Amino acid sequence: MKPASFDYLAPTSLEEALALLADNPDAKLIAGGQSFVPVMNFRLASPPLLIDLNRIPSLAYINSDSTGLRIGAMTRNRALETSDVVRSANPLLSAAMPWIAHVAIRNRGTMGGSLSNADPAAELPAIAMVCDAEFTLDRRTGARTVKATDFFQGLFSTALAPDEILTRIRFPAWPANRRHGFFEVSRRHGDFAIVGAAVTLDLDANGRVAAARIGVFGAADTPVLVPDAAAALIGKSSTETTEFAREAGRIARARITPRADHQASSDYRAELIETLVRRALEQALGHAHRKAA
């Protein structure tokens, strides 16, 4: 299959791209193209104009300081995977990167492209939600900031307006006492996730859980945070691994109604939610035990 005919423009500045988008409301943006080009080839989308962001160098960067980690939307996933800055500033994001498709795809795919596509099986939307990330959305008349939890609105649907571009992702600073866990199941490594789980645990000076966030992806039309499961962990000792990890898994399973598709039944996804939340928590607590040792 080949796409329908379209016009193509490649601006060299963000200002130029925003002006083009404002003047062409039916245009579509292209970043890495790893998701949208196949959609066009199958003629599931036929935009009259493509605006290519690849020639805007100001949209690709990785910066970190005491306030957090800032990533330009056109930063390649492979650059995130291999970055020592990301590995130090957000270990959960770093741990999730090798699970995204394959190296060839990560070489082209961008963080902003994945987030804007909002695939329910994608890793990056879930990581952004679990880490309480903020997104900068630019338009010709100004910019606004949206929490990751408010950005993903439905299946392949986001808070982006037609004239807006996601330009920056900011992750809050990673506390020294934070531990993380990440697991997913797919038919083969690099395939779309059937279900995945990502967690963070913040421990107090006595090794008890002071704060927690649990996210599940691949099970519903958007990534899902499970605050009830996270609340069940508060005050628990990091040495009480097995039982409260199991309880959190059971709560997560009860709170999410999984979808069914050609990949898996709803019942199988429900089993995976419980198992993967438990495993991700055990992994996070394993980090805590190794740190203590």
Description:
The protein has helices at 14-23, 36-41, 77-82, 84-89, 91-96, 103-108, 111-117, 123-130, 148-151, 227-231, 241-255, 266-292; strands at 7-9, 28-30, 49-52, 62-65, 68-72, 134-139, 142-147, 152-154, 157-158, 165-172, 178-185, 195-203, 209-217, 224-225. The mean pLDDT is 95. The chain has a 5-stranded antiparallel beta sheet with strand order 4-5-10-6-7. Helix 11 packs antiparallel against helix 12 (266-292). It is 36% helix and 25% strand. It has 3 domains: 7-52, Uridine Diphospho-n-acetylenolpyruvylglucosamine Reductase, domain 2; 57-172, Uridine Diphospho-n-acetylenolpyruvylglucosamine Reductase, domain 3 (2-Layer Sandwich), CATH 3.30.465; 178-292, CO dehydrogenase flavoprotein, C-terminal domain (Enolase-like, domain 1, 2-Layer Sandwich), CATH 3.30.390.50. It is α+β, with helices and mostly antiparallel strands. The longest helix has 27 residues, at 266-292. The relative contact order is 0.11.
**Which regions contain 5 or more consecutive residues with pLDDT less than 50?**
none
The whole-angstrom Rg is 19 Å
In round numbers, the mean pLDDT is 95
The strand count comes to 14
SS field, number of helical segments: 12
* Total domain modules: 3
Q: Report the oligomer.
A: single chain
The coarse overall form would be globular
Strand order across the largest sheet: 4-5-10-6-7
Largest β-sheet summary = 5 strands, antiparallel
- Reading the helices and strands in chain order gives EHEHEEEHHHHHHEEHEEEEEEEHHH
